[in-house]
Amino acid sequence: MTQYYYLVASLPMLRPDDPPPLDSPAFLELCREQAAAEDHALLARISLDSLELLPGDPAAWGDYALWETALRDELAVQRAQRLGLDPEPFLRPAPFFAGLTAVAREALGAGTPREVEAALDRRRWSRLDEIETGTQFSLGRLVVYRLKLLLLERRQRFQPEPGRQAFQNEFSRILDGASAWTDAVAGRPGMET
Fold first, then answer.
1. How far is 39 from 10, CA to CA, in rounded Å?
2. Closest Cα partner for 94 from 106, 76, 116?
3. Is 147:48 a contact under the CB 8 Å cutoff?
4. Chain-centre distance for alpha carbon 117
5. Is residue 178 located within the same domain as residue 190?
6. In this predicted model, what pLDDT tens digit does every residue of 145-166 receive, in sequence order?
7. Do the beta carbons of residue 4 and residue 139 sit within 8 Å?
8. DSSP state of 3
């Protein structure tokens, strides 16, 4: 197995509550320059959106992708139960992981959607820390780094101000529509209040 001593040692540290010290294109460029072509291709393919596993993928990616799929299944089950729906159409094949029911329940009870996502991301980071143990300077360490970087980039896209502005715009549009309706009703004969 190829070891990436210099590459791993040269990467800036990632911390779960800090902004990413580099972006994915910069990380992938470093890997393109210093890693084997097939390892770079894997790192470029890794995504939080698509958890696709291919034969020969390293254990670190397989461990995370299967765990994440199982977590998403558990979230789907609990959300479907709350809505009185059948969760089966939303589930993907995944092995059993002990403790995910409690993880999902705790995260879903965290409050606002942003707090729920933060709770889930803390657990995802913790899982990546577990997977990272023993990877040393291998491709597995780069896989974990890539996934943590993707988590940080995803969190950075959750900007409260654009969300607040979108809410305010929609709320104003609804109030304007209600005001127009009230004016129309008040102006009709026989509709006085």
1. 17
2. 76
3. yes
4. 8
5. yes
6. 999 999 999 998 876 666 677 7
7. yes
8. B
Report the pLDDT value the prediction gives residue 134, as an integer from 0 to 100: 85
Question: Can you tell me the distance from the alpha carbon of 171 to that of 82, in angstroms, rounded to the nearest whole number?
Answer: 27
Q: Rounded CA gap, 115 and 158, in Å?
A: 11
For residue 179, what are the CA distances in angstroms to 14, 170, 172, 188? 50, 14, 10, 15
Indicate if 66 and 154 belong to the same structural domain.
yes
Tokens in use for 164?
């607040």
Comparing C-alpha atoms, which of 17, 38, 27 is closest to residue 152?
Answer: 17
Total number of domains constituting the chain: 2
Q: Give 138's strand partners.
A: 3
Is there a single domain that holds both residue 118 and residue 184? no
Question: Are 149 and 71 found together in one domain?
Answer: yes
Q: Clarify whether residues 150 and 167 are in a common domain.
A: no
Residues 24-60 have pLDDT tens digits of 999 999 999 999 999 999 999 999 999 999 999 999 9
CA distance 188 to 180: 13
Quote the domain boundaries for residue 117.
5-158
